[in-house]
Design goal:
By secondary structure, this protein is an alpha/beta fold. It has 2 domains: 5-185 and 238-268, Rossmann fold (3-Layer(aba) Sandwich); 204-235 and 271-339, UDP-galactose 4-epimerase, domain 1 (Alpha-Beta Complex). The protein has 11 helices and 13 strands. The protein is globular, with a radius of gyration of 19 Å. The structure holds uridine-diphosphate-N-acetylglucosamine.
Length: 342
């Protein structure tokens, strides 16, 4: 059988690079395309090293450039596209909404148009942020989407709607999947790829590892008066390699024509809530170190608790999270040390 080709937009970034590794290991041809607006070549080179694929194609381009996207789809025989190319800083999106709407929507519309023209399947990287502050836990794919609390979150909802409406209008000619990620953390066990935040990290785990290595003085735990067992927020932390593997299951399902509906949604999480404090303590225990942290006021916009019901992904997709939080936090620390040259 002919090898299938998967385009990974934003493929040089944190999630995209891990997904590229798993797709290549599963036997797919991969085309990585990225404008390098929020990453450098580190992870792309890491993917080449891990997979031994020095010939892995890299296209430097901006997905907001419709002509460039059209050219990409005529240059390569793309069977499926996984769309990651987007801005992702929640706070920045509140300050600069137009930047977020323009970039995240234009790029997805361009991908969607070309995918439709070439009958390519579409996998959209969505987020648990679309659930807002849920009424019932854990959240299933049927849980209502709440009004987004940031322009970033809104772009995730709008892109899901663009995908759904395009598929519906095509009467089966177009198919796609949205994966709603919970909190992706960790790094590849090789420590050759991982998260590379620019400036001060917004997310918890990069802040922890940078504090542990001495780049930041002290971790602030935002809020210890939430209505949760230890007062800190609960999240569903999903290992980045597990998360990446979910994409292989989803791509296979689309390309092997096994979808039950033309548009499908899956939660990608572990189903296990972990508090911020528990995560910090697990990091200390696994890596045998003490972290400098203090309790600070709540961060605006944070929901007290959210975790997934991943049973649809488990049963329908055949995927489940396998790595333990200890393995994940050890990998995150190994990656930070790799970056520091230790
Ligand atoms: C955020 C986004 C989510 C996005 C995800 C990407 C929202 C509301 N959240 O999730 O859409 O997909 O990032 O990774 O849109 N924390 C601290 N100290 C810190 C940093 C974080 O205590 O220095 C706490 C937060 O209060 C939160 C938890 O750690 O309770 C996780 O925070 P974070 O990693 O930023 O992820 P989310 O806000 O859950």
């Amino acid at each position: 059988m002919m090898k299938k080709t998967v385009l990974v937009s934003g493929g040089a970034g944190y999630i995209g690079s891990h997904v590229s590794v798993e797709l290549l290991s599963a036997g797919y041809d991969v085309v990585v395309a990225d404008n390098f607006s929020n990453c450098d070549l580190t992870c792309f080179e890491g993917v080449r090293k891990i997979t031994g694929r020095d010939d892995l194609p890299l296209v430097k381009m901006d997905f907001c450039d419709a002509a460039a996207v059209r050219k990409l789809f005529s240059d390569y025989p793309i069977d499926a596209v996984i769309h990651f190319a987007a801005f992702k800083a929640v706070g920045e999106s509140v300050e600069q909404p137009l930047k977020y709407y323009k970039n995240n929507l234009d790029s997805f519309l361009n991908v969607q148009e070309s995918a439709q023209a070439h009958s390519a399947k579409v996998l959209f990287s969505s987020s648990a942020t679309v659930y807002g502050e849920p009424d019932k836990m854990p959240v299933t794919e049927e849980s209502p989407r709440k009004p987004a609390t940031s322009p970033y979150g809104n772009t995730k909802q709008i892109c899901e709607d663009i995908l759904r409406d395009t598929i519906f209008a095509s009467k089966g000619a177009v198919q796609g999947i949205a994966l709603r990620y919970f909190n992706p953390i960790g790094a590849h066990p090789s420590a050759l790829i991982g998260e590379l935040p620019r400036g001060v990290p917004n997310n918890l785990v990069p802040y922890i590892t940078q504090t542990a290595i001495g780049k930041r003085e002290c971790l602030s735990i935002f809020g210890n008066d939430y209505p949760t067992p230890d007062g800190t927020c609960l999240r569903d932390y999903i290992d980045i390699v597990d998360l990446a593997k979910a994409h292989v299951f989803a791509v296979r399902r689309m390309l092997e024509a096994r979808m039950e509906a033309d548009y499908e949604i899956f939660n990608i999480g572990t189903g296990r809530p972990v508090s911020v404090l528990e995560l910090v303590q697990a990091f200390e225990r696994v890596n045998g170190l003490k972290l400098n942290y203090r309790f600070a006021p709540r961060r605006e916009g944070d929901v007290p608790a959210i975790w997934a019901d991943p049973s649809r992904a488990n049963t329908v997709l055949g995927w489940r999270a396998e790595r333990t939080i200890e393995e994940t936090l050890a990998a995150a620390w190994a990656w930070e040390k790799h970056l520091a040259g230790i």
